[in-house]
Design brief:
Blueprint (H helix, E strand, L loop, with lengths): L1 H7 L2 H18 L5 H8 L3 E6 L4 E6 L2 H10 L1 H11 L5 E6 L14 H5 L9 H9 L4 E2 L3 E2 L18 H12 L8 E4 L6 H15 L5 E5 H13 L3 H8 L4 E5 L8 H16 L3 E6 L11 H7 L3 E4 L5 H15 L5 H10 L4 H18 L5 H10 L5 H13 L7 H11 L4 H4 L6 H17 L4 H8 L4 H14 L4 H14 L1
Parallel strand pairs: 2-3, 6-9, 6-10, 7-8, 8-9
Antiparallel strand pairs: 1-2, 4-5
Length: 495
Amino acid sequence: MLIDTLSEHDAAKKQYLRELREKIILAIAGQFDHKKMLTFLWNIGITDIDEVKKEVVIWVPNDFILIQIKKLFNKALKEAIQSVYNPQFSLRYAVYTPFSSGKHELLLDLKKFLNIADEQKVPQEQSFALEKTVKAELSQYFWILFDPTYTFDTFVAGANNQFAFSAAKAVAENPGIVYNPLFLYGNVGLGKTHLMQAVGNEIMQKNPDKVVIYLPSSNLIQEIVNALRNNTIPKLLKKFENVDVLLVDDIQFLAWKDRTQEVFHNLFNDFNMKKKQIIISSDRPPKELTLLEERITSRFQKGLVADIQAPDFETRIAILEEKLQRKGLQIDFEYLSLIAQYIKSNVRELEGALNILITRQQLSGLEISEDDVYNCLKTLGYYSDERHKTMENVLQQNKKSTKNFETLVEMVAQYYSLSIEDLKSDSRKKEISTARQLLMLLAKKYFGWTLEKIGEYFWGKNHATAIYAINNMEKKLKSDIELQHDYRVFTDWIE
């Protein structure tokens, strides 16, 4: 392994690798802006030469740097290697986190040998932060790495999140100018983190000189607690002076933490005064964050508040297809539909179900079957054989019963563990209204009841209410597989 060979290099080999690194970087120096080179090439090193594969091995500190180098410098680095070392050699990358400090023995001071020390007209501390980070690290305080796969291209926009998506894109284009602060809210697993990091990744790509920090609230709380304990709050706030864009995830967890809120309030005010971009996420809108100080939540509302809802059926399918496309894999559409019909409100669990299926396929070497999909849904708690066994028992008990509407009402009540009085009431509880609407649709389609009769039977209201209920059930049946199953079984009994 490369890590082993690195420790085995003698002093002469290490010196040769350092000199080769210097020659390669000097060869490309005239092609790129010095700031960009300092940002992305400061902590990369030549670690080995593979004579068998004819490759010069370059180590980088993290995946984000790797992606940026491939985008910006790959062609130039390859040509430089062929020019200063061997025309037959190419290059190979590997991630080596100890290089993140920029002080490894295989790393040379870029500013020194490029003679650009006088070009940096910024304070030493700020210069150090800009040079050392990949906009995901700030000095020695933070190592919160952005996920490079969280981009706008990989985010599936639909009716449920289009407004938030458009707002995030606008912020990425003009950070600190429009929609500041941007407040995103929605339930767990709907893509808030993805969208926030997409903004950060976009800003860093277009503005390499920007320092962008993503902080889950738990990390922010810990940093503030440590600073309070060590009496170093001014030092902590000083560190944030070098940050251009701050992304704080799950702000609701600051509840009950008065001193933490006080520090965050000061931090927020500083960013706001200097027109630096802030993006906040939460599981609820600012008005419902009652355990946070009003002076904080009121500032959230001065920017743009955008919600992210659960994706509709079509968007869920699109999400699954996008994930498969990125992995270069295919799964039958009917199986994707099955997953999308059961998992309705959590994008993470959609991805989780997909990953389970892919792993099972890879381990078994067999094609995915319908049983595999149902087993996957069982694992995640979205499907139960017991429910369907209950249906079979109800049908068996009523197999020889008179096939009239009253018997059907009794069967539906028994199956859904409701009373007949529940079904005929005006209760809006989801389980009651769903069963009632199912019965109303069956009454119209299979028993020939008029809308007036349906309305009178169930809660004594007019036919307009019955029309709404029946239309609503028909809409649900288009995407709810469990309802489809129940409807089909009841209609089979009727017929």
